[in-house]
Write a structure and sequence with these properties.
Elements (H helix, E strand, L loop, with lengths): L2 E11 L2 E9 L2 E5 L2 E3 L6 H13 L3 E13 L6 H4 L3 E11 L15 E8 L8 E2 L4 H8 L7 E4 L2
Parallel strand pairs: 1-6, 3-8, 5-9
Antiparallel strand pairs: 1-2, 1-4, 2-3, 2-7, 5-6
Pfam families: NUDIX
Cofactor: Mg(2+)
Keywords: Hydrolase
């Protein structure tokens, strides 16, 4: 099993977080913009490229907020992801230009758009990783949160 690095953007403005909106067999779900690191890319290069592809613009990258592992065989999607082992790095980011209509140049399969989700309502969203929703609220409320979150979904 190969381990894949993935880099994600946590973009918050006016109490809302920008997420990609996706659809699967179970309905609508949300992800943080970003994706897999290609050979030879730095994390920053990966994150800028992925944000252009998924939300239509580059981002200004700030501090590392979280590291999360996803070992597919240990989660509810093991039937589809049993061979997946991914380490994700979540960075605080800002949009270069605040544009509420985010349209990517090359959205991921299953991505149907983007959405600004209110942090006060994030626990009601099917956001992956679901276990990280409270950590996002904590960090942006000024509370402490661990950086390494472990194998969560």
């Amino acid at each position: 099993m190969n381990i894949r690095n993935s880099v994600k953007a946590v973009i918050i403005d006016q109490g809302k977080v920008l997420l990609t909106k996706n659809q699967d067999r179970e309905g609508i779900f949300y992800l943080f913009p970003g994706g897999g690191q290609e050979h030879g890319e730095t994390f920053h290069e990966t994150l800028v490229r992925e944000c252009i592809e998924e939300i239509g613009q580059p981002v200004k990258i700030g501090e590392l907020l979280f590291i999360r592992e996803y070992i597919g065989k240990t989660h509810e999607h093991a039937k589809y992801d049993s061979e997946v082992h991914q380490v994700e790095y979540y960075f605080a980011c800002e949009l270069m230009e605040l544009n509420r209509d985010q349209i990517g140049t090359a959205p991921d399969p299953g991505q149907i758009g983007t959405e600004w989700a209110a942090l006060t309502n994030i626990m009601n969203y099917r956001v992956y990783p679901q276990a990280m929703r409270q950590n996002i609220i904590d960090v942006y409320s000024g509370r402490k949160s661990p950086i390494y979150l472990g194998n969560i979904n």
